[in-house]
Structures are given as structure tokens and as C-alpha cells.
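Cross-posting from the modeling subforum.

Setting up a comparison between two proteins and wanted a second pair of eyes on the formatting. Protein 1 (sequence, then C-alpha cells):
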Amino acid sequence: MIKTYFSNQGVEWDEIVKSFSKHDSYYLSGYVKAFERNGDGKAMLIYFEDDSPEKTRAISVVMKRDISDFQPFSNRLQDNGFFDIVTPYGYGGFIIEGENVRQLKEEYEQFCKKEHIVSEFVRFHPILENWNGLDSVYDIVRLGNTVFMDTSAPETIWQNLTSKNRNMIRKAQKEGLKVFWGRDPQIIEQFIQIYNETMDKDSANDYYYFDKDFYESISEDLKHNALWFYSVKDDEIAAISIFLFCNGQMHYHLSGSKRKFSSLAPTNLLLYEAAVWASKNGYKTLHLGGGVGAAEDSLYKFKKAFNRNEDSAFCIGRKIFDNDTYQKLVDFRSEENSFDNNSSFFPLYRAK
């Protein structure tokens, strides 16, 4: 009833994913390969199919992580003894076709216990809203809102912008900024430099600094579903972003900009032009994401200026499959003087 596929089975993996009417780029094998290279775990497609006449099917994509690889457990756990799973960077969770959630829940729990998976953390898809109907499977928490653009028509895109944002876009155009897109290797090199400078400026976590082979994976493994958009002033890139697209949906993935051009609003123009490109190429939404940690911070407010009328909810899911082992892992960590047993981080045994 449950089958698993791995990234080296890309053809079979993608055939299954694309057979679901609501599939998205986050579920493709080419998307997760970059995060395998990044050391996030072993990518796995979980496919469920029941044997009823109505035929319920479901897919989920996860990164399977060996808990012994986490530094606090490196000398305390045997390799490949216990695992946990997490949504790859971005969004995911089960896409379900059919009504038999009860059997999915039962067989999924059995599968995870058999595979020695202790816990799961899910970042559900804000556009698909695929947390609906899964209250019996996960502890579901709404963290906040994310922003998407309705790209059904260029006129709709413009109407949904705040008046201040329209003025900033007009200013960028008046200052001579132009927006282009492509996937030339030289563009990727420039992206890495500008993106890393942006992460430095924002004092980002070390995780968000990706190696060159990470970007090469996006370019090679996701070549039909990713583009670099960049705004240019006097032959110099002012802002640059990676966008993903698949099955009517487009996503603002990673982005960077040069500080010296910030007064010219290069990212505002870039996002507007990317949304128009999405509209003209049949993509109905451009999801921008939310603030840091789902907070309504300055990043969220910047994105909100691109759709003043609507938000999309962001929900997470938490699940413990093996309570005894989970508690033992927490007890191990509790021996550390600096460990906070009251942290809201999940799974708690991975809290920093």
C-alpha cells in the first residue's frame, strides 16, 4: 500500500508526482536533489494507494535524516538506528486524491515505525492548503500568513499592488532598470556572489549559504522548472532571484540584491516583471512566501505590498511515531546544562 522512491529513480518518481492534478515543483525529484547535495538528508517520495474501488492515493516528499548525524548524538547513537523526516526546504505535505484518510493514517504510521522513524515535521503548502482534513494525522498549527500574487491577468497583478509599490516600480523603470531572465552559467556565478552578500547583510543562519554544487543541481536537475530573473542598471545586476514553476504555480525561491541600488527598488521591479511573465506563460499564482519564522516583519510587509487584498495561511504539522525513543532522546539532551526543555522547537531533541 505504501511504496517509496528515491532521487536516483527520477523518472518513476516524477511520473507518479505528475499523475496528481495538484502537483507542484516542490514535489519533483529534481527539486530535492539540490538539498541532498546540501546535506539535508536522503530525499524520499512516499506513495500511498489503497485497494478500495474508489481508489485513494497520496504522495509526500520528505528528507530522511539519521539522528546519529546530529552532533549531540554522534557518540551516543548507532548509525542508521533512528531517523526523523522533514519537509524539504520550502513547502510540502501530503497531496491526497480520495477520501480514505483513515487507512492512509494507519498504514503511514505502521510504515514509519517499521522504518524506525521517530518523528516528522511538515511545512504544509500555503497555496494547496493541504493541511485540511489531516487533523487526525498530525498536530497542526497555524503559524502565520504568506503572500501570493494572483497572476491570472497582468491587469490583476497591477491592481493588487499597493499604490506605494506601483510608484516604486515606476521609479525603477524611469531610472532605466530592465529585467531579464535566463540560466546562463555566468548568471549563476553572479547570483552566488550577490545572494551571499545579501545573507551577510541580513546576518543569516549558516544553513542559508549554499555551495556551488547546490546551484548547479538546480540548473541541471530542475532545468525545465527554474529560471533566474535579474534586474539590471547600466549593465550591472542590481537584484537577482531564482523562481520555480510547475503546473500553474510559480514560486519566489532565493533572492539577493546589491545595497548600492536599494533606492532604485530593483527587487520591486523584478517581482512585478516575474509576475507578468508568469501570467503570460499560464501560471495562475506567484507565491512570495512570508516573513522570517512566519512573523509579520519587514520582509513580510515588503511582500504584502504585492497583494494588498489577500493572504494565504502557513501551517505546520508535527507527529511523533515512537514516543519512547523520542523521550529518551530528549532525556539525553536534558543532560546538557544549556538545553531548554521548554523550547517550542520540534522535534525537541534537535533544539539548538
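Protein 2 (same layout):
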Amino acid sequence: MNEFLNPLVINDARPRSRGGRAPRLGENTAEILMELGLSHDEISRLTELGVVIK
């Protein structure tokens, strides 16, 4: 895996990388919508309609 150097420098030190990968498209959709107050049924319906990808 290629890592990119963080250009940010604070007090002559660079912040450490968190590592990992970016989420895939739709990977966190259900969790985010639930945090916004949607129910499982509402999220399922939006998925069926093609409004969201999960």
C-alpha cells in the first residue's frame, strides 16, 4: 500500500497517519442514516427505490 506524506507540520512534527483505507461507496450509508434518525425500514425502502446504495 502506498502512503502519502501528510503536508501538515505542527511544532516541527507531522501528525501520524491513521492508516486504513477509505470506506467503499455505500459502506457506511446505513449507519450514517441511522445517526440522522432514519429507521431500518426507511433505509430499506430508500435502498429498494435506488435512492441510496448500501
